[in-house]
Records
---
Amino acid sequence: MPEKRYKVAVLGATGAVGREMLKVLDEMRFPASDVIALASPRSVGQQVDYGNRQLDVQAATIEALAGVDIVLASAGSAVSKQLLPLAAQRGSLCIDNSSAFRMHADVPLVVPEVNPLAMIGHKGIIANPNCSTIQMVVALQPLHQLAGLRRVVVATYQSVSGAGQKGIEELVTQTAALLNGKPFDVVVHNARIAFNVIPHIGDAAADGYTDEELKLVYETRKIMGLPNLAVCPTAVRVPVTAGHSESVVCEFERPITVAQARAALQQAHGITVVDDLAAKQYPMPMDCAESDSVFVGRIRKDFSVAHGLALWVVADNLRKGAATNAVQIANLAVAAGLVHGA
Amino acid sequence: MPEKRYKVAVLGATGAVGREMLKVLDEMRFPASDVIALASPRSVGQQVDYGNRQLDVQAATIEALAGVDIVLASAGSAVSKQLLPLAAQRGSLCIDNSSAFRMHADVPLVVPEVNPLAMIGHKGIIANPNCSTIQMVVALQPLHQLAGLRRVVVATYQSVSGAGQKGIEELVTQTAALLNGKPFDVVVHNARIAFNVIPHIGDAAADGYTDEELKLVYETRKIMGLPNLAVCPTAVRVPVTAGHSESVVCEFERPITVAQARAALQQAHGITVVDDLAAKQYPMPMDCAESDSVFVGRIRKDFSVAHGLALWVVADNLRKGAATNAVQIANLAVAAGLVHGA
């Protein structure tokens, strides 16, 4: 019997995450019968890479999604809200990287290493969590299983690729301008990002927090199935091109040693432990770009509470933080027979 | 009666902090009868700015310190250990920016806004705390007075000027090389710093922490007079030229509201509150360089504990984090009649 193959649409194919989705689909040899690239009308006429093929970009319309088995969407919340419910109704499995549906009660929010079973009974839309949440929960889950997670204080060091291609270009342009004493614009980020850090990603939300920060609270609770988990987030943009870093300080219900934590992290799927301070071995964004792993280092006892650990967690936000996680969800859906339309 | 004037020596005058000390002495119109610039023998022959004068750099020897009333030292621990005890014995007041004496029981470790009285009874050496500690305790002290500080989780975003002139040059050189696809060296920082972040400042110390991180624990306890204060530190180098930023998450013994905290911070000496997220107003290193203030923003309730607050604290690490604090100690010593030799 020939392997079942699926028609896949990448929605938002010209964006930083969309391009990475096409790359990951090819690298992981996703069983696609066809892959189509969809984007906003102004991108029609462009081409995007898929393996050694170039795909013509088509307009993202509901008509273009006809017959598509799996939609990988990263075109922003407005487009997702407009197209995905209809596509889902017509039988497509939509894996959505926007924040549009993440907190909907009937939409699974999935990180395959953490809550794969949440996908069962999906209603056509599965949400891909925010980049900074994905890498954190991958690191926290094995520790939670050991000792019961109670509270997390997280401070992020997020790269400009989280703001897409334009975010990267603005950092490079501003940096070159500053080095040469020339003027520059501030358009994409909330302030100048070159040789600066900005404690503001996304929009102001509630109680003095940004929406980017609140995602670390609510998405983490939903994915880990811990509705009362205490999380204090601070989200900061740093002048790094690719890769998000996080200082993650966690408290547990039960005792947990550094050795136990390290062993659990080393055994966990999707995690690479890089942890030898004396030998200058720890995860850094420059080393983690283009990888699908979540890198954990600086594992140490937090002496300031009863059962505490401090970690340093780094991942490529466009890969495991977005595209890779979405394709992993698609792979799992295929393996589990959860793709309706095929 | 004419104003009393003091002979001042800046030890380590060619370094980033030493140059800033000379600048601050001039800006604050410190009552100096004479200012001499001392550095290592290889810097002899150089000149450094003091107001509109140029000072000839002399070799840092005990002979050169004869008759000096106040030594402002920033030449590293080895030089401080060698020269300051002798100079102190001979009657100089030595204000030392190195870590050599900070934790000595008979050496006051002083931040004028926090523990000015600790200077009384000094034995000739007063230690200037580490940059990242100074700005944090300035922000914490008014909140501690309100509600009793219990625990702090701090993650730093430290600029390369913390590693001196060479640290700044390495960032600029590497950045230009990377933008132009050219090779570069890694000498000053523990890894490439351009477009990267490094979770390692200083040396590996104990229990998986760096010495830079442990300073945030032990110096904070000593300055605030809270020997049992719980502190969990993470110190990270970021590609910023000047200005350290800190995510400071604190727990208190008693209730404290955001409004109370903001009012206390606004009234506190040495603090500038910049805090309006919706209007994109928060402290950033690019705005805080060359200032003597500690800037506090992103003041918000930490919902993850009973009495919690989260803050974002930024200061110029060469100014309030080093040179300004040292000159403020000297000013206070002069005002309080604590300079022996004069």
Note: Helices of chain B lie at 16-27, 77-89, 131-147, 164-179, 211-224, 258-267, 285-288, 319-335.
---
Amino acid sequence: MENFQYYAPTKVVFGKGTENKAGQLVKEQNCRKVLIHYGSGSVKRSGLLDRIFASLDEEGISYISLGGVVPNPRLSLVYEGIDLCRREGVDFILAVGGGSVIDSAKAIGYGVENEGDVWDFYERKRQACGCLPIGVVLTIAAAGSEMSDSSVITNENGWLKRGYNSSYCRPKFAVMNPELTMTLPKYQTASGCVDIMMHTMERYFNHCDNMELTDGISEHLLRTVMKNAKILMDEPQCYKARAEVMWAGSLSHNGLMACGNDGGDWACHQLEHELGGMFDVAHGAGLAAVWGSWARYVCDALPDRFEQFAVNVMGVENGDDKNAVIQKGIEAMENFFRQIEMPTDLGGLNIEVSEDQMKELALKCSHFGKRTIGCVKKLNQEDIYRIYQKAAD
Amino acid sequence: MENFQYYAPTKVVFGKGTENKAGQLVKEQNCRKVLIHYGSGSVKRSGLLDRIFASLDEEGISYISLGGVVPNPRLSLVYEGIDLCRREGVDFILAVGGGSVIDSAKAIGYGVENEGDVWDFYERKRQACGCLPIGVVLTIAAAGSEMSDSSVITNENGWLKRGYNSSYCRPKFAVMNPELTMTLPKYQTASGCVDIMMHTMERYFNHCDNMELTDGISEHLLRTVMKNAKILMDEPQCYKARAEVMWAGSLSHNGLMACGNDGGDWACHQLEHELGGMFDVAHGAGLAAVWGSWARYVCDALPDRFEQFAVNVMGVENGDDKNAVIQKGIEAMENFFRQIEMPTDLGGLNIEVSEDQMKELALKCSHFGKRTIGCVKKLNQEDIYRIYQKAAD
């Protein structure tokens, strides 16, 4: 068991109608001026944005807004947001949306509080010394950014997708009304469920003597998300299933699943980041598309853990042939992905990846051959290329 | 499923040697002067207190100390602490100990930050408007006070034991080294395990449509504590078991187990508080002594839940006769208590409670007949008396 730090200071306000408390929660932050940051038209069309405005108006809070965040949020909009906040004296950002909007808000927050180019942090050239405080009204259950210390941005110059983690960006509060996620299309719902599961699975697969408290919580979370993801395919309006998935999204990425382990593998996330940067695929779908190939490539390095996963999470019957159990576990996960209409290979993403592009992906993912990814097996440029190739088969 | 708030901002620093980070963690709080609050001689004898002093000295932090906290911490020492803090200009309290020390520190913190008698809060006469910031070096896994919003104090004037909850008192950080708990006597270890379990069980038994994510986490936590409590009876030096129990203690009472439910029953805690106030019994042991009598008295009001508990937590085989399953579940829990040498009735506490004393307990517990306790079944003075009587049989 490893020593660990756990720090998840976000105040969660969860349930029906909670978005109407946004103004009151912002008020508690004692700020002068708020940037309301959001994405595309859906939060406008649904009337959510107007309700948020009204809630802030009611408390007499001064604000401006900046929309236009897209999935795989762009650095150019982050720069625009930084300029805007500086010009207008913004000292609090309220992100209304999903992971992309929150991540974009965090990047703007870093940019305002630190001198120099904010992209430096994402390139790991230096560390941030602070971040504007962030609040969240969550509309998509997926990224877990509403409680997490992470933010992922795409630089259009080279289409590089990079993440940066620090406690400074953990949101002060997160308003989470599962009803707001009910209108999400099936594909986005399913993709979100995969993303949530992967935040736990990335941490679950590691070489430590894991904490059994964390293991059991992780396994229960994975089973609960699978069960409710399947319910949502048929009943997208089911409040209970939306709520289970939404809360799982936060717990999966707020640090709880890393308690007592070494933080996990994260190779799949890095494999997907390159795909997301180059082809703009949905993050969860991209993760589903590479997971099986990754798992088969590395499972012999961690057989006990993959066996435990097969039995405790996927319900595979234990047997003498450990390798058979492991393979059944991986297949069962892929079958689940299929049940919720998620891809299990690159073809399923409806993209065509040429040989040359696969080499380029592997080159970027290994930071031009200078780094390995993952801990279950440390994967170099050649390993990464082979996993992409398996996923393309 | 109920709407909920979840707010657990304590930074947890968990693992071997972490007490040496106390100075650094206090330093981050930017305070002028620290009160180091502790209990009896054991933290002195073990050298822990000296290491804490050294860690603060290293950071150049100014501090004073106040020891003498006893189990069921007393209001008189709280008053003394408030005077001392005011006189010395203390603006941060570092509690070195278990739940009693932390609760005493919280009460002192309330007293310093609010005018008037601090006991008013515990009598629910008024609400606190703040609390001095608290840090914790934990030495006993039990109360969960290191992350919780609660504090329980005993007023020697009438031997009233009362709790007060507010977010103001949630500790800023908690240093948790499981090694520090290795020298605890068997009885105190077992009593702590019961206390931990009860913080989850109090929330688990309620009339809501519960969140399955919370249910499964709760059930896993209970199973994990039972397993590791039994290990500790034979191997008190087992680091892994100490760590599982210690982390379970925090998760059990930081709010996680109330997500999506209505906050729970809490009758057993109130039944025990009166016992603790009058007879000074160990809190966990007192809880174990009343739980079975409470469970049998109320289970017919919540049969599905008690059945789920029997099957998912206690491993009772499900069957057609629901009541038989429920009774087996209650018996299995009492058998577990016996396995770790905890009482299952008042006799097991080595106290003799007279008829008159039972009536007095029921009178106080019902706030002189003016209140009911619990939600599984709302228990009035007569119900409370009968449960004590059953527990005395």
Note: Strands of chain A lie at 4-14, 33-38, 62-66, 92-97, 134-138, 150-155, 160-165, 173-176.
